[in-house]
């Protein structure tokens, strides 16, 4: 994965070993090995000790937009990363688990896929990028299992121009906030992993989609205590009433607390009868 200031351990150019570690420390730029095996080249004064380099420094990016840090990537580099994470996902047991989970949904006639809050594939946080790439390739499986390729819109205010180029190249449409919400209709599949309360609130105010993949509604209410979150939790609970659900298979934390909800087929929905209405 070529990049100006991050190198994979043993990538060839500057392998870290006991001998050359010392040399590196004497330069003004310092190499720091993170827990995932990535070598970060960090500008640091000679007096800065290794132990004082903060996590923030490790996650500082090449540029910033609206307070969000990003790393430089060419479109070609992003294609390579996408291929890497697709391969990693396809051999993970979560991928097989997802296919099995999706079988439960039976035949679904999805008219439109609406993807909210994927996150930028140029996010400066490597775990953030990894989650977004993994969520993107998992979506490919969802779409493959649920049927033919349908029109898909993505919305995330944090997308960079290169994110949009890559997504367009994959055949997706990118819309600006808040347009995507209008695309949520009864035949839609909404894919919104780890989104904020206001995004889910908007979803709950649209027509109830055929499939909703997002935060576990029960946990949403339990762990998000802001006023918006409480209102959202109630609205989401209402939305998924009469839905079936299954946990989204886990890989790292990329789908933590995520569930797949789908509307029961009309013939499976028994009309609720209040006890007093039951005549002997
Ligand atoms: C917590 S991040 C989740 C990113 C990624 N899905 C993940 O699991 O790491 C929430 C994302 O929602 C996006 N977001 C915020 N407002 C949004 C909106 N109105 N529509 C779509 N996405 C939105 C943010 O830009 C951010 O990328």
From TrEMBL:
Pfam families: SRR1. The lineage of its organism: Eukaryota, Fungi, Dikarya, Ascomycota, Pezizomycotina. Residues 100-262 form the SRR1-like domain. This is SRR1-like domain-containing protein. It comes from Lachnellula suecica. InterPro entries: SRR1-like.
